[in-house]
């Protein structure tokens, strides 16, 4: 992956929501109903986008919609059911969207599960974190490609994590069947998300899709991801509760993703994160891409394996506008 062009476009100013350009006329899908997903949806709705919040919990989704409508009375926001741990649900969601939208301008692959204490699997038999955080978003992006390529300048933003730094893709045990360590599996899923974002940009350039793929990470943010995954009384859950000052507020954690999604100067194939304290907090800046994410052979193998596992196919040149 040649990502050097991204390095020529540093963020020159301290970018905040006040710098977000109007999003009127753009349609966005954001995965995840709470935490960073909610902050992404709220900011986009406030800027005038037509926002679809996608998540597996209809109660949480409806609450998010009502919350946004209360804060932004003119918001165009709706909820649609999507379980990223089910390829059937992803297919149904994509078919429903294709039946109701002409094009999709922005897809934010944000939703995640983090460090459940025991190994769990998706309905298709994938390890829960790898299956939800990565394979689910891989399949979702593929299924939504017919809508994305009909947009003029669509963006796909895939959210990674600082946990990707120490991770590797273990092709011998992708589903953590032989050696399940929750944080290792989480790191692998987030490294895969970053590699997907980089490879998607290269594929778009090679195949003429006309979309821009960008990666982002939120640093360390105050959301329910840790207590929801590991449990409120686990060590991570207790750290989140009692060492809250180590975590930046969720609205600030969402800024790198929102920069990647909306800033005119955000580059395809770039990776954005917070600019301070080892990329754990601060305002959006170019993040360091771990060496493991730049290995071309691993990128290609991961893409091929992901297509095989999800049965998802990205369009070849000349088939850009075919219905999925």
Descriptive labels:
single chain; 324 residues; alpha/beta; Rossmann fold; eight-stranded mixed beta sheet; 10 helices; 15% strand
Describe the structure concisely.
With 324 residues, this protein is of the alpha/beta class. Helix content is 40%, strand content 15%.
Can you characterise this structure?
The chain has 324 residues and is of the alpha/beta class. It has a single domain, classed as Rossmann fold, CATH 3.40.50. The protein contains 10 helices and 10 strands. The protein has helices spanning 35-46, 58-71, 87-100, 128-148, 182-207, 225-230, 235-242, 250-253, 255-262, 296-310; strands spanning 27-31, 50-55, 76-81, 106-109, 155-159, 212-216, 221-222, 248-249, 271-276, 281-286. The strands form 2 sheets. It has an 8-stranded mixed sheet, sandwiched between helices. A two-stranded parallel sheet has the order 7-8. α3 runs parallel beside α4 and α5 packs across α10 (296-310). The two termini are 27 Å apart. Residues 1-8 and 223-245 have low confidence and may be disordered.
């Amino acid at each position: 992956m040649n990502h050097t062009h991204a390095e020529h476009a540093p963020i020159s100013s301290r970018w905040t929501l006040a710098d977000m350009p109007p999003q009127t006329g753009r349609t966005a899908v954001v995965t995840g109903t709470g935490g960073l997903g909610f902050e992404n949806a709220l900011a986009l709705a406030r800027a005038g986008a037509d926002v679809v919040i996608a998540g597996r919990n209809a109660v949480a989704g409806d609450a998010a919609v009502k919350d946004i409508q209360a804060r932004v009375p003119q918001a165009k926001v709706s909820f649609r059911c999507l379980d990223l741990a089910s390829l059937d649900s992803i297919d149904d969601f994509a078919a429903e969207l294709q039946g109701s939208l002409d094009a999709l301008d922005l897809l934010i692959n944000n939703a995640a599960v983090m460090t459940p204490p025991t190994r769990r699997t998706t309905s298709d038999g994938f390890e829960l974190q790898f299956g939800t955080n990565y394979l689910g978003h891989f399949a979702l992006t593929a299924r939504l490609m017919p809508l994305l390529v009909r947009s003029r300048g669509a963006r796909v933003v895939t959210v990674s994590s600082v946990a990707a730094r120490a991770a590797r893709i273990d092709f011998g045990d992708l589903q953590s069947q032989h050696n399940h360590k929750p944080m290792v599996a989480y790191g692998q899923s987030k490294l895969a998300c970053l590699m997907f974002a980089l490879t998607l940009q290269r594929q778009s350039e090679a195949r003429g899709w006309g979309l821009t793929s960008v990666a982002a990470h939120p640093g360390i943010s105050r959301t329910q991801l840790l207590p929801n995954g590991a449990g409120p009384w686990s060590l991570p859950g207790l750290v989140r509760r009692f060492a809250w000052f180590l975590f930046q507020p969720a609205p600030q954690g969402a800024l790198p993703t929102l920069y990647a999604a909306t800033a005119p100067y955000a580059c395809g194939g770039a990776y954005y994160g917070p600019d301070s304290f080892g990329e754990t907090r601060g305002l959006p800046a170019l993040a360091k891409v771990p060496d493991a994410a730049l290995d071309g052979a691993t990128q290609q193998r991961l893409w091929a394996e992901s297509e095989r596992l999800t049965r998802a196919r990205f369009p070849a040149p000349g088939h850009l506008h075919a219905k999925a």
